[in-house]
## 1
Amino acid sequence: MNNVTLPLWTDEVPHIKGTAPGIDIPQLTIYRPSQSLKRDVAVVICPGGGYGGLALDHEGHDIAKWLNQLGITAGILEYRMSRGGYQHPIPLLDAQRAVRLMRSKHDEFGISPGKIGILGFSAGGHLASTSGTHYDTGIEDSSDPIDCFSCRPDFMILCYPVITLLKQSAHQGSRKNLLGEDADPELVQALSNETQVTSDTPPTFLFHTSEDTLVPPENSILFYQALQQAGVSAELHIYQKGPHGVGLAPHIEGARNWPQDCAAWFRSQGIL
């Protein structure tokens, strides 16, 4: 089935600064699996890029094709960021809207409204984890029917994610692009997502590599520990080999197993 790119908003885009698609106009490119493989599951993909760019190939299109092989409908999110002059909360608004949009189209896409997850790499992992810790169940008084849907993802897949903005292990480039030079300490705390986990945080699969020096694996460890303390189902894999930004890691011993480990986790959670 052909892929289709949908704008997140068909009317006025909130807080818009320009007219460039994918920069000023956030959009979701839908990959739909073949009917013979199709399951009732969907995932919004947030590629990384330090909140300054998007690694759309190895952290976007390649991931959508892998999810399609599992029968999962995938949507690659092109969210707004610093290259267009956008900082927090704009990327989060875009990610929340993408989940709402996917949920609003559950009948059209043949998916369950209770099986919509979010997946993110690096800074996209920070955005995904922010979506899973900062959400609402729908904006009841909105005139936009899509806003009436919950933006809470039902599960998360976080791949070498930026999690904390507080510690030495924080990725300073992502923090600067998202919050600027002199961020409010309370905002830094609120967006250090290991501090925001509750018992309602969605079940989470995480993977990292020990050799990642750009975003150290402590980020994933902090989030996993917070999930454990909150009683949330979680699974963490830290593979020895592989630098930052491995994507599907097809040629890296150990790390190349993360897609099959994630698929096994999907099955263990009853997602597939």
## 2
Amino acid sequence: MRNRNHLFPEIPAPSRALLVGALLTLASACASPELALPSFAAGEGEVPAGYEDVDALLRSAVLEGRAAGLSALVLHEGSVDYLQVHGELELGSGRALRTDSICRVYSMTKALTSVAAMMLWEEGRLGLDDSVGSYLPEWAEVNVGRYGLSGFSVVPAERAITIRELLRHTSGIPYHTWLPAPYPKLYREEFGEGPMVFGPEQAISLAEFSERLATLPVAHQPGFMWTYGAGTDVLGRVIEVVSDQPFDEFLSERLLAPLGMVDTGFWVPEEKWGRFSAAHVVNEEGRVSGVDGDGWEPYRQSPSNPSGGGGLVSTLQDYAIFLQMLLDGGEWKGRRYLSKSTVELMTDPSSAQGGPHPFFNYFGLGFEIISAKNAEKGWGLEGAYGWSGVARTHFLVDPEHEVVLLLYQQTHPFEVGLRNEVFAEMHRAMGLAVEE
């Protein structure tokens, strides 16, 4: 097991800003591992001993039509234990999926946006319990939708939404299509017929998106419960205001470029288009039936309103670097992005007090945190953390066992059945299985 001793003190708020420069200088004294995944196509990779059942499950899922293509990675104690791809980049094209294929990670974007916000928190430029309205005036007075015996009504919020609530999805800002009437109609009237489920897609600025979203009622009083929604998109606008630069530029300059995430962004340049996976759809039997033809155009150019909640594309290589940085306590290749204590704060169940999501796990400051109850299912052990994207991309980080897991599909609609099967097999391969 490699040495993971960290040379940096934990930084208390609010004096972080004075220490940031010193931290970055000291970081060069601490070496972090390299991570360079080999590039190969489906059918070319070798299966390491012990991972035969994992590989067989992935192959059978493609053969049975549960996915057009699958990419999977296991990092254990800083080393690649398993890396494999199966299937096609685009169903029926004959083009094999590759380890360096570019995929839509959708809501896995939220983890990067959350880390970006916490970097500003460490610098003393953002407060977790500050009101969102103190940064974005349009959120100073929020209305709340309420259902009663006389029907739907709108009442003023009892208090302001906080930055912490944006991070842990307890703000009440919803994904409107998952709510009953009249939310879908209200959102269509404001934003038109665009999907609007995973953030702004109209040709408006992120500022205008936030301003218009704030005119609509949230789903419940701030902090009342966990409601998954567009709060992380609003957080992207907060980052934009606090940093005084466009959100996508901040993310690139402070995270993507320094980490070496060269294939991660809000659009796909023409020279990389041949590596971009198609988005696929399934039929009533749950089998992949074709390509989503509308899944290409949004990625042909830089968006006017980059979605911090679901806009990024990435590769196994890039996202694995980001996750390994978190596993190593906020450091990568001699550069510190977050203090170890901040990573622990983001992924500690205590950060989610009052906000567990409906599947019985906690949700901290940007991540789902596996509870003992869910650990019994075997796909993630207690204390691990992760999240997913709507096109069935999934990640898991287990600090205790020094594990990073990634599984990419490009298929709608969302489900976690295959993720649970694959991650459980990966745990068995590492000798970390939970007896059910």
## 3
Amino acid sequence: MKYDCLVIGASGMQGRIVVRDLLESKRRVFLADLYREGSEPLLRSHPSIPFEPVDLRDYSATLELIQKVDAPLVINCAEGDWNIDVYKACLAAKKHVIDLGSDIPMTKAQIAMGPHFERAGLIAITGCGSTPGINNIMLKYAAEFFETMDTVDAGFAWDSNLKEFVVPFSIESVIEELTEPAPYIERGRWREAAPLETGVVKKFRGIGSQKCFIVRHPETYTFQLYYKKDGLKNFHFYAGFPQHSLDVVLKLIELGFGEKDPIVLDQNKIRPVDAVSRILARLNPPEGYTEKEVLWVRIKGKSINGTSKEMLMECVVPTVPGWESAGCNIDTGMPASIIAQMILDGNIKTNGSFAPGPAIPAMEFFQELKKRGMKVYQDDALVC
């Protein structure tokens, strides 16, 4: 059988969302992951879908699987540590590739591969989720209304109706964001801050006030890369968490569950952060639990007629009927599925390696978000 996509990391939270959205869009998929457990429910309901184990630490095995499946596009939903290896394997196998993003050094390395992908006639896009992802495309849309953009801030915030802990989008990523030095740009210079020392209260559509922190995010690099020419001198990325969720994450950090250095258990090496990720993946939201997330970008600069201008772009993400178990995590998995289908359908034509934005048609993307229950606002007006 010919497949449209090979989904790596298919058993994880985001991988399962991507796979389901692709299947509901009548796409043919091949699943791969280090672990089969998370894919079992879907494999039972779709027994014809193939699954193979893959360990991204083994480059040769990864390349062999990509060549064997021979799908035109690879969607990498695994943690970002091995994004560059998947990029190299896809380039060698002559396949398009997208992923959910990683840290700034990895993002730089991936975008630097642009000339190689361009010469091969291939598309590579890193950070095809919520943020990076939706926020990048909202900034691309907003940039058309500005002559210059001096200051851009962006981020996410979310809350739930029941004040009970439910696993965020990626517990490993959340722990990294709250513990690792956070770069930001001020007056054109790169600076760093300790995330938990940067708390500030902001107000969000449909959520209200929430404490936010400056955190490490690849948009600090990609926004400057694409918009420095437009005058961008200041940028901060903010993460907002409801207090009941933040308290649990901070306790996990305090107890050492976020550590990446392996420990030996029954003669096996395991990273504490991997163990806690697997354990928390088994938790289901309580009955009646719903979430709402707001992805946002605020821009200050000069309008095309030279006057001062400020704009707020927001994407409001509710819990969608039929997707209750995913909560607002749909805003990471579904955009990856949308972008993948745009590539398969020929609606993204620019070859090379990018962060989201430059190669993605914004309004078409926003319309696909709307079909899936996510609405985009420009100030107080509904864009889509």
## 4
Amino acid sequence: MVTRDDRAGRAEAARLQGLDLEAHLADPALKQRFVTPMFDVIAPRYDAFTRIFSFGMDRGWKRELLEDVRRAAPPDAVVVDLACGTGDLAFDIALMLPDARVTGIDASGEMIALAVRRRTAISGDRVSFTVGDMSHLELPDASVDIVTAGYGFRNVPDYELALREVARLLRPGGYLLTLDFHRPENPLWRWLLVRYLTAAGSVIGWLWHRAPVIYAYLGPSVEHFVSWQGFSRSLERSGFTVERVSTRLLGGIAIFRARKHGLATVDR
């Protein structure tokens, strides 16, 4: 049975299919108009997609990020998980740090709605979720110990603006921990990775939504992003010290641990 929500999702997917993806990725003023409704459409299947598309490697990448959180966070940490999606990282952090308070923030209202529904069965009041813009966070200066972002900075119009906003939010010595696809510097590998992501995403987008662009977006989004080396330089310019970088897929994936300039530190 096709529900009203299913029909609305298909209609939105068809509308996105008709947009010029390259134009929206190239223009910061247009990018969020594509990205946010796209994530609204894919929200119910987002977690399944990340597992399938990464051949299960996403779980290991997130475990590595979580280990960095465990090493960096004080026991009673205030944590913000940006681009939280349906809440996977936020819930895992809350389970790992029983005295922490975790807030998940995402631009997609549908993602947040799913995260809120999951919260009642998993973590209670220690985890909260809200719709928000990671480039303009409605939180006080120097009020957070840890910020995490899984596949977040690649999807904002200006990732350096978002990095500066995270720096504002963190206390001196606080940590930003990120996991994302990055644009490989090797041109041949970049071409192969982007073409694979685009082709495989097109197939899944067609099968699930009759709109190839919904998941084919991943390839061009990597092409328009920055290498992990470039992201590291941006972190340094934004007030962070990069303490650790772990790369996968020949630089196509990178996990960062970066400390806001200040006193706190953890062992490498």
